[in-house]
Give the backbone structure.
Amino acid sequence: MGIRNGIVIAITLAAMLVTSLPVTAGIVGTERMVAQETRSHTLDRIDVVLAGEAVASQLADWGVAPEMVRERMAALSDAELQKLAASMETDPAGGVLVVIGVVFVVLIILELVGVTNIFRRV
Amino acid sequence: MTMRVQILVLLAIGTLALSGCAVGPEHRVLRAAGLPVELVEVPFFPQEEYQCGPAALATLLVHSGVEVTPEQLVSRVYVPDRQGSLQAEILAATRSHGRVPYLMPETLAPILAELRAGQPVLLLQNLGIDRWPVWHYAVLIGVDPAAETFLLRSGTKRRLESGAVPFLASWDRGGRWSLVAVAASEPPASADVLGWLRAVAPFESTGHLDLAAEGYMAAVERWPDEAMAWTALGNVRYLQRDLAAAESAYQRALELSPGFGPACNNLAQTLTELVAAGERTCDAVDACAKACGPRP
């Protein structure tokens, strides 16, 4: 246990050192900047949907904490995030099945962030 | 019903709803699109066997003022083994002819906006079905909302009238992939700043700095309040070794968006080099570090 704690502390310290050193290896190119910005825009778009009343209450009904969804989203690749955001913006209800629309959006969220297996325990 | 069964049923219903009206909203966009438009001056290159990619791309490039023929493009974008062209090659060939390939969003409204602005749109269609795709590139040159038709330069047809439903479905099955080709100094009418920078940035990464600079100059002109556009301009000035111009572009970015990470980082780098060259004092670097705060 002591050794494991030591390793954790060492890794944390190393990570802090690396990130706090001034960057001298040149500039952040535009392609990288755009990729980073695209990701944070996508996360914002998803956040808006997650925070929506209907989606939030459906998540709560199924006992899924929005924080947990956000945590898992952080692990998704850029492409997976794009897919998630895009599927949330299409309107699967087509104006007819509004309730199923919300449920469907929530299911897409859960499927993509990999928490659907939570239901197998119910 | 257990919750799991409920979910499966809901999923099934949702899937049916999705597949039934995937392009329904786009159809409504078309009906509300107003007067018909047709870009009659767009050139036409009847394709040879399987070579719709080179023909469609030549149509776009010639329209944007590049002198090129489909034959000249065949070696660049035609993959004989696949009897077709790959999307990545279409993008690369557009760039190698000095034009910016701007990928359109996956919705119809901006595509119609481009037509209205006089811009033909190259798009990928799947004329088959998902399981047995038949890929085809065509150029959208017009639309008639009242008649619900789209007008295409397609294959051997100079003016193909395609009904809205089959056309939208083929575009949807093709992954809603479409692009316009424009000069670096002219962002498309419907462009947003992130999309435009994404389209221009490969010129920067591949060392075509003049074209990148032209594209970023156009960006700060069109979106003068966007820190990202100014940062991109700073980047190309830095790479062109015009460090003073890079410095002022990054500073403009930071005025607009204090603490914006890439601008902070790149300004610090630029100032460090200016100090090393004896053109700035260390105070400038300190002031920059203070303005940007500790690095994340």
Observations:
- Residues 16-21 of chain B have pLDDT under 50 and may be disordered.
- The beta strands of chain B are 37-38, 100-103, 121-126, 135-144, 149-154, 157-163, 178-182.
- The interface with chain A takes residues 2-4, 7, 10-11, 13-14, 17-18, 20-22, 24-25, 106, 194, 197-198, 200-202, 204-205, 212, 216, 228, 231-232, 235-236, 238, 261-262, 265-266, 268-270, 272, 294-296 of chain B (CB under 8 Å).
- Chain B is about 55% helix and 15% strand.
